[in-house]
Specification:
A hairpin with a 2-residue loop joins strand 1 and strand 2. This protein is of the alpha/beta class. The protein is about 20% helix and about 30% strand. The longest helix is centred in the N-terminal third of the chain and has 16 residues. The protein contains four helices and 15 strands. The strands form two sheets. Strands 8, 9, 10, 11, 12, 13, 14 and 15 form an eight-stranded mixed beta sheet that branches. It starts with a strand and ends with a strand. The chain has one domain: Purple Acid Phosphatase, chain A, domain 2 (4-Layer Sandwich), CATH 3.60.21. This is Calcineurin-like phosphoesterase domain-containing protein. It comes from Kaistella haifensis DSM 19056. GO terms for molecular function: hydrolase activity.
């Protein structure tokens, strides 16, 4: 894993953005990400769409590498941890989680997180919320309006179009930051990119496999 990092301050809290689709909150010792969409590739294969078998394994390997690097006390998953109902990828995650027995998992439920609380807890999720507040921050899968506190959300799978030297546009996944919110990129590598539905006057921190860039 080639790791690129960028530290930013939000409400006097330090966050390390990475090019590996997650960020680390130093003061809370929390690794934060959104939109893993566990079960998505298995769901597509079940419906006759041929996809590689190792997509979720690669995402979990990347997540494990980030955990080993940052040594967080907890994961904060900002929605769409799951994609479909029960399928083989849930067992893959349950087996993967065994290597991190004391790691706390906090889930803010997204529109795809439809399994019951009991099933989520059996997967290793410790706490489940519709929205979650810590210090001066609110975590919500979808953006919240008219909030005094800073909102960290996901859902949109944000990306940005960047013009190259040969006048072509390339699309990259991105963090989006405004004075009131941060929108996380999708953690899953098997997602599209929304390059249009962005807030006004925002900063972009887009990334490639080996770099992280601000525009």
């Amino acid at each position: 894993m080639m790791l690129a990092e960028k530290k930013i301050l939000i409400r006097n809290q330090s966050f390390i953005l990475t090019n590996q689709r997650a960020m680390f909150w130093e003061e809370s010792s929390a690794l934060i990400f959104s939109d893993l969409h566990l079960g998505k590739t298995a769901h597509f294969r079940k419906n006759g769409i041929a996809l590689p078998d190792n997509l979720i394994q690669n995402d979990l390997q990347r997540l494990g590498d980030l955990i080993h690097h940052f040594q967080p006390q907890k994961l904060i998953i900002v929605g769409d941890f799951l994609h479909a109902g029960k399928n083989s990828e849930l067992y893959i995650f349950h087996t993967w989680k065994i290597q991190f027995p004391i790691l706390k998992i906090i889930l803010i439920k997204g529109n795809h997180d439809r399994l019951s609380k009991d099933h989520l807890q059996k997967l290793g999720v410790d706490e489940i919320y519709a929205t979650y507040e810590e210090d001066e921050l609110i975590f919500s899968h979808e953006k919240l309006e008219n909030q005094e506190k800073f909102v960290i959300s996901g859902h949109f799978h944000p990306g940005v179009r960047v013009k190259t030297a040969v006048h072509r546009f390339l699309r990259f996944p991105s963090y989006i930051v405004t004075p009131q919110q941060l929108i996380l990129p999708a953690f899953s590598s098997f997602t599209g990119l929304d390059t249009k539905n962005h807030p006004e006057k925002c900063q972009y921190f887009f990334f490639t496999e080996d770099g992280l860039y601000e525009i």
